[in-house]
Design goal:
65% of the residues lie in helices and 0% in strands. It is mainly α. It has a single domain, classed as Orthogonal Bundle (Helix Hairpins), CATH 1.10.287. α1 crosses α2 and α1 packs antiparallel against α3. The relative contact order is 0.14.
Length: 128
């Protein structure tokens, strides 16, 4: 099916759409909106990841809520654990959560810089 025959796809308003290289650079208001949308999504990902960590530390490596929050926050930020874990299941959870947190961190950086990188490269490829 050719491009002209494809039905128009509706996009969710919280999913940014970037202009094609043949289109002019988007206005600054669109650029700021893209940054805010991506900031919203990274915040959602971080909050969900933090909740996974808090619940895992609370129930698998029995800790108080505040210790679970502190430990999950420190792991998610890349600082490392602060509470010694005594149970084997807790140690396994902590290991997998640390790996998961590394991927979340890198993913969030990519999501945050996507509008900036797109605008930079789009601007470089514009014809005068």
């Amino acid at each position: 099916m050719s491009n002209s025959m494809k039905p128009a796809q509706k996009r969710h308003p919280l999913l940014p759409k970037y202009e094609h290289k043949s289109q002019p650079l988007a206005p600054k208001s669109v650029y700021i909106k893209r940054i805010l949308i991506n900031l919203f999504w990274t915040s959602c990902i971080l909050l969900l990841s933090l909740m996974i960590g808090v619940l895992g530390y609370k129930y698998l490596a029995p800790m108080s809520w505040i210790d679970a929050l502190h430990n999950a926050s420190m792991i998610l930020s890349g600082m490392g654990p602060v509470v010694t874990i005594q149970t084997n299941i807790g140690k396994l959870f902590s290991s997998f959560y640390a790996l998961f947190s590394g991927v979340v961190f890198i993913t969030n950086i990519g999501i945050l810089i996507a509008p900036v990188a797109h605008r930079f490269f789009h601007n470089m490829n514009l014809e005068d």
